[in-house]
């Protein structure tokens, strides 16, 4: 567990890392770190902030009913509901939601199948799979405009085998026990998304 | 409204952002911020400046007849006429014109159809479209060498639904009410241009 | 030969270079510099460190039996065994193991053939091949989960002609007499991996 | 004309720009600025230097017979002969030789035709072509191992219409009257090389 200030600082560090990678384009995305599990309190980026230059007051303290716990002129992102559903389901400590061209591409190209299969790749070790022929399947859910429904769909699709869910034509939610673990998982899956896309393009060669 | 100095500083910040992204290659592109709407006065990059190291005197104050309002040895870019036509048509506060490989690719690949269709993508929210199956169409105009004609063509093709127009084999004009909004719109459309291109390449897979 | 501290500092510099390139995603990869050849002592990154912010105590001093020679709470990466096998076979002074999308792609696309052929390319000069029609073949070995076996396979496949071996769907081991040479070899092969991949995609054009 | 020190400083600035772009991988490439035309004296990077961290003594003063004019332990790159041939033929003031994946790809894909055609693209303006349907052709020469022969081939193929020549499977020579112009030309051609490659891949779509 963290104090809110520690969690907020961890969110800012994650935002700097993800911004630098270009993973938070056009003020999109939101990042959170758990402050307390019960009753639930999380530190999360506010709606519409430029993630490259987050200030302390861009991070809100939210309870499990999406109520803001600190005095602020800002309102939480509607996508906060997805974070809350995931914290409820898993004992994770940090959740990252970002949009990249490659995670969007695989979410669309494998969208009808509902999952992206990954087989026998070294970076699965970063997701906790150490066996030689590890095979995992990263779920894809439809991009519901109703965010309560999206939160339920993401939480339902999420399984313990992979700490991430793609939202079709939208982006990814990735999580971990700590901010470092969440970031490591996200990095690994972004690598795999680019790899899967590029391999698909090349395999067409014959 | 801004003072000229505030507008010029906003132009320099936008140029740093766009240069860092590699969106202003070979001294190309030009960026402007509105100073006053009536009579129109804008702060805009001069012709041929290296946008990575703009100085205060690289930003010119121009009226709606393309006359320079400040003492300077520099002349405005001929493409300033396109900015003026767009400020006339829309109540926007900032216009960004950049050249990227991906905006050029979609402008050419969809050039004969005259528009790039985008359907059901999350980043359309950054352009103000929040419905689940939002569908927009980003116009493409021919790259007229006559820049007065290009300005008219861009302004005619521009519609309220999307704050951007592609110029075929040339680049993009994107705008917004504020410098931040213009930048957000540009970021969203550059993401979508890369996505549309890469999806087209992959879909060939079958 | 170096002192351990000099070797550790060289490892940190290599890690900064490779991190900046994005070649060490999700805490993957490991980098080493030889301290003494006989008895063998090497400076190598510990398991699981974030390579973008290595501290002095993230670098371990290891002997040829993989025993840690310094007091530390950290344990060596299991992949250290591959480094030891390569130092035994070659008189090299530094070994770099990184994961990139492009080295993974060519390791998979050419995996069944067991090697990536490179012919008549200028960057082969960076690998020591100066003749006009130089042709080399970079070996690919299977990604054995048993790392002792992987170490043997890499060392067996390695030949004097090219200072690198691909591990299928995993990454690359590249080496050189000095840290600078190892880095130069790795840079050249990463360039060639991207080139080979992209040429393959384009040649499909006909 | 410059003093040697001014020219050397301009070379270092060009090297920082090109390194940052990733255009000088594995210590490859060489960059020069003219000091005096008659008798010819040029400032040029030495062989094998890491271009990301050039020191003053990494820049050599060379005459038209490739003799080093300053006391130094370093020797000039063999590719200096290509620079000398180009300074002899054109009244240019700076020459940049870099290796990129995209300039290598187009040099190979169009190698049998001996030139890359570019038609009606906005960035041709950066090369001095302002008409609406400008069409230019960038020459490609074989990658002769004999560098005197390569120098002659590059100089023969070079024509006034485009300030650049591709060397097949090797890289590009680009030049301009000033260091700024050489850099602008190189930036424009690198943009066009990536565009031509990616358009070729996409056009396969049909």
TrEMBL record, chains A, B, C, D:
Gene3D superfamilies: Class II aldolase/adducin N-terminal domain (3.40.225.10)
Cofactor(s) needed by this chain: Zn(2+)
HAMAP family with a match to the protein in the record: Salvage_MtnB
UniProt-listed InterPro entries: Aldolase_II/adducin_N, Aldolase_II/adducin_N_sf, MethylthioRu-1-P_deHdtase_MtnB
GO cellular component, one term: cytoplasm
Family: Belongs to the aldolase class II family. MtnB subfamily.
Catalyzed reaction equations: 5-(methylsulfanyl)-D-ribulose 1-phosphate = 5-methylsulfanyl-2,3-dioxopentyl phosphate + H2O
Any single biological process term in GO: L-methionine salvage from methylthioadenosine
GO MF annotation terms: methylthioribulose 1-phosphate dehydratase activity; zinc ion binding
EC number, UniProt record: 4.2.1.109
Pathway assigned in UniProt: Amino-acid biosynthesis; L-methionine biosynthesis via salvage pathway; L-methionine from S-methyl-5-thio-alpha-D-ribose 1-phosphate: step 2/6
Cofactor note: Binds 1 zinc ion per subunit.
Gene name of this polypeptide: mtnB
Protein task: Catalyzes the dehydration of methylthioribulose-1-phosphate (MTRu-1-P) into 2,3-diketo-5-methylthiopentyl-1-phosphate (DK-MTP-1-P).
Keywords: Amino-acid biosynthesis, Lyase, Metal-binding, Methionine biosynthesis, Zinc
Binding site for Zn(2+): 97, 99
Protein name: Methylthioribulose-1-phosphate dehydratase
Native source organism of the sequence: Alicyclobacillus acidoterrestris (strain ATCC 49025 / DSM 3922 / CIP 106132 / NCIMB 13137 / GD3B)
Pfam families: Aldolase_II
């Amino acid at each position: 567990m963290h104090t809110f200030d520690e969690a907020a600082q961890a969110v800012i560090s994650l935002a700097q890392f993800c911004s630098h990678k270009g993973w938070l384009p056009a003020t999109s995305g939101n990042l959170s770190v758990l402050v307390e599990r019960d009753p639930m309190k999380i530190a999360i980026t506010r709606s519409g902030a430029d993630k490259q230059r987050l200030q302390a007051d861009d991070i809100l303290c939210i309870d499990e009913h999406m109520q803001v716990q600190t005095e602020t002129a800002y309102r939480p992102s509607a996508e906060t509901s997805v974070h809350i559903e995931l914290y409820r389901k898993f004992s994770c400590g940090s959740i990252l939601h970002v949009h990249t061209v490659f995670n969007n591409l695989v979410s669309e190209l494998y969208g009808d199948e509902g999952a992206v299969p990954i087989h026998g790749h070294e970076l699965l070790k970063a997701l906790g799979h150490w066996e030689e022929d590890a095979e995992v399947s990263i779920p894809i859910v439809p991009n519901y405009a109703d965010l309560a429904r999206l939160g339920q769909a993401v939480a339902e699709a999420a399984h313990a085998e992979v700490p991430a869910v793609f939202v079709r034509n939208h982006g990814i939610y990735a999580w971990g026990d700590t901010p470092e673990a969440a970031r490591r998982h996200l990095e690994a899956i972004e690598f795999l998304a680019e790899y899967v896309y590029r391999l698909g393009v090349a395999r067409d060669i014959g």
